[in-house]
Amino acid sequence: MDQHVFSCIVLPLQMYAFHSQDRQMPTCPDGWSNAWMGHSYLMNTAYGAQGGGQQLASPGSCLPHFRSHLFIECNAKGLCGFFQEHKNFWLRVIGSSMDDDMFSMIMGEAIKVRNNDDRIGKCVVCLRTQQMTDFFLR
Is residue 45 within a helix (H) or strand (E), and if so which, with residue range? Predict the structure, then answer.
C-alpha cells in the first residue's frame, strides 16, 4: 500500500498553476520557468457534504497524472479501499471557437482513465525566476 499513498511537502516558493481548457498545453509567462505539466484538477466530494478542492492558482490543482480515484480510505483495522461515493472533478476541454458551440451549456461526462487525454484540461505549474523588483527597474 505504501506505493499508493504519498505525503505532501510545503515549499516556500512563488509557484502558480496556469490552466487551459483547450487541447493546447499552456506555457509559463516571461520571467517564469516550467516546474511540471499536468491535468487540471478542481475538487472532490465524499459522503454527505464532505469534500474539498484546490484554488486553481495553487500548484495542487495541476496533477502530473490523471487518476480516476485520487483518494483511498483506510479504517482502524488497516483495511483500505476506494469508494464509489468519492467523486473527483476535473476541468474539461471546451470548444475554442464559435463553431464549437463555445457558449452553449456543457454537459457533464464520466471520464475514465483510458479516454482522458483529449477531454481533461491541461495545466502547467510555473516557478517565478525573475524577482518582482526586476520588473519595476525596467
Answer: strand 32-45
